[in-house]
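Researcher: Structure prediction, please.
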Amino acid sequence: MKKVVLIIAALVSVCFSFQACKQQDSLKVMSYNIRNAKAQDGENAWDLRKDATTAMLNSIKPDVFGIQEAYPVQENFILENNPEYKGFGVGRDDGKDAGERMSVFYRTDVLELLDGGTWWLSETPYEPSFGWDAKCRRTATWARLKHKATGKEFFFVNTHLDHVGVEARRNGLALVVELVGEMCPGAALILTGDFNVEPGDECLNSLESLEMLDARTNAAVSDDKPSFNGFGLMDGKVIDYIYYRGFSGVDNFRVVDESFAGKPYISDHYPIVATIKF
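Model: Predicted structure follows.
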C-alpha cells in the first residue's frame, strides 16, 4: 500500500512539473478594446464598468496585453489596481496625452521590458500624423520584451486600425512588420489589436503574406464567437485579432465573453486571449 501511495505521489509530482514547464514555455496574450472613457455610454460608461476590467484581469491573468481606445485615466486605473503590471502608451494626437492611446501592459514577474515606443501608421511614423486615407491618426505601441523563464526575446505590438481608410489599414499593418524587421530582422513578433475588418478582408491577406499567423484560426483549441458586442445593442462581429510569427504554435484561443463584477459587458468589445508557445 505504501508503495502505491509513493507511486501516485510521484505521478502527481510529474504532472505538476510538466504543467509548470508548459506554462514557462508559453505566453498568455490578450487584446482588449476598452472603449474610451469619454464616450457617452449611459449605464455602460467607463466609471460604471471599470471595476469589471480589474475583475477580468484578476481572472484571466494575461502575461502581456494591449488595450485600444484608452485615455490616461483608464491606463492609470489599470496600473493602480493591478500592481503586478507595468504599462505605457501615448496619445495618438500629440504623442503625449491628447487622443486615444494603444497601451501595452506586461507582468513584471514574467517579462522584462528591454525597449518600447510608439509609431504612427503613416508615411512619417515617428511623429503624430495621418496616414494615407485614414479618418483618424492611428498608432501602434511596441515593446521589446524578454521572457524571464526562458530568456527568449520577442516584440509585442498593439494597434487600432482605421475604421474608414482601406489603404491605411493595409499599409499600416505592412508598416508594423517592416519596422520590426528593420529593428531586429527575423524577430519573433506578436501583433494585437482592433483591426476594424472581418475575416477575409484583403488587409489580413496582406498580413499573412508577411508570414504572420492568426491565433484564432491556428490554435489547437479555438472558438468562432464575435469579439465586438456593441454592448448588446448591435450585431456581433469578429474584428479583434492576435497575430504572431516566430513561435512554435498556439495552444488555445478564446473570446472572453463572461460577466465580471456584475457587468455582462465590460466594454463594447470582448477581450480575446491566446496561449502562444515559444
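Model: The longest strand covers residues 111-120.
Researcher: Thanks, that helps.
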